[in-house]
Amino acid sequence: xxxxxxxxxxxxxxxxxxxxxxxxxxxxxxxxxxxxxxxxxxxxxxxxxxxxxxxxxxxxxxxxxxxxxxxxxxxxxxxxxxxxxxxxxxxxxxxxxxxxxxxxxxxxxxxxxxxxxxxxxxxxxxxxxxxxxxxxxxxxxxxxxxxxxxxxxxxxxxxxxxxxxxxxxxxxxxxxxxxxxxxxxxxxxxxxxxxxxxxxxxxxxxxxxxxxxxxxxxxxxxxxxxxxxxxxxxxxxxxxxxxxxxxxxxxxxxxxxxxxxxxxxxxxxxxxxxxxxxxxxxxxxxxxx
Length: 289
Hints:
Number of helices: 4
Number of strands: 12
Largest sheet: 10 strands, antiparallel
Oligomer: single chain
Structural class: alpha+beta
């Protein structure tokens, strides 16, 4: 049994190593033009080496050339981020063009006298005027207001109509981080810089309405929220904006993600500003960071 098995093995190796002659003849003269000898084992080895080189060259071409971007699931994260950034910039440019077009049309209508007086408020599409803002007061409320004004008539703080309220509400912290640059009016730094982790959630500090979203060359992706008590909060250098103009947001809601966009930045951080009736105030006076 063992001898038969050895004989079969020798026969198998003999067959695959046996060389065959392949000849090429001239059809007219029947003269042998070219010939070579090859075995089955050599043919398998040549085909295997050729297939290996073919797969290697194809892989190198796909990896080292932009062809890889057309493969499903192979698009680089940076390219995706650039695509999203370009889409946001294009959206911001379209919005700016629409606002400028509306402004020029309104100016033209005002100069030509074709615009009604009541419609002038709609020149700025971002402005919001509530006709029912002044709520009628009762007799008791009128008496209380008169008494309060009489008592406070010599208080110097009432001379400033834009005096920010001291403790009328609770502010949420916009992001978890460390203050790297404080509020400084002398240096024209109207907010604070919070150094935090990239793509950290940016929270709205108060209930309000989103009045601006767009891309600024210096400050990157910017979002502004108008609050009912006269405050305006501004969030700059965001990686991604999650809200649109006109969206109503509540305190503590995620509105953006911390990033490093814009030219005036040295790393991932949030530049946060708090304004009260057109005047910048120090956020540290209202929020514990």
